[in-house]
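INSTRUCTION: Work out how this chain folds

Fields: amino acid sequence; protein backbone structure tokens

Chain under study, with its fold:
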Amino acid sequence: MREVNVNIQNKYFSQEQKFRVNHQSPVPLYHQIYLHLRHLIVTNKLTPSEMLPTEMELTEFFSVGRHTIREALSKLVDDGFIERYSGRGTFVRAFENRERFYLDRSFSHQITALGMVAHSKVLEKFTGIIDNNSPVSLQKKMGVPFLQLTRIRYGNDIPLGVQTAILLIDRCPDIQQYDFSKESLYNILSSIYHLKIAEIHNEISASIATEKQSSLLDIEIGEPILIEKTVTYLADGEPIEATNCFYRSDKYNYNIRYKYRECDKEPS
């Protein structure tokens, strides 16, 4: 084994990390490895441009099959944490600009891409049934059980936003058992329940912080905040979640890209 990878192996299995794949866990093996490698990257245990071991070496390190390693690495590529080059190897990607956050991206993905650790504090969690008091976007699902989850979202120890999500749970039973102070909701939907998010509709507005909002976000009363309402759809077109969020405006930016089309030309 190459000397450089002996050093990397120490990072994977140091006394501090104490990581071993749990074959008894309901979390798929590839996702356990993905989460561990992602943690090493976002905490700078693995630094930008650092080369990862080969697939065979990772297979030996984690005592899993090569297909499991490929799945974990593919997810890291898809989420922007590593880059793979034919004939050269696999490398940790450099982080993006660390000073701005964007509402048009997944919160967990954006925070980790900025080199910060995303985590949450759960303020409220309970179940109910969709009725006339539920968000309009979900009322076509009358009688379907839901989970309501309110969390403060952090980047490292900085409170960035407060999110209230109403999640339809008929297709993801018992999801309320997970620890949403640490787990990503979308990762659980994808890896455990095999529900793929296909589309998110956003509505953005501006407001000023109330006394309660300023206390939760550690800002002054009356400071500007961004309000975001979303509806999330699965690949079959069915809604699965509606959220209401408020974010610190000094930490977020909203990005829109519009592709000019022939039919958009001004009349002559």
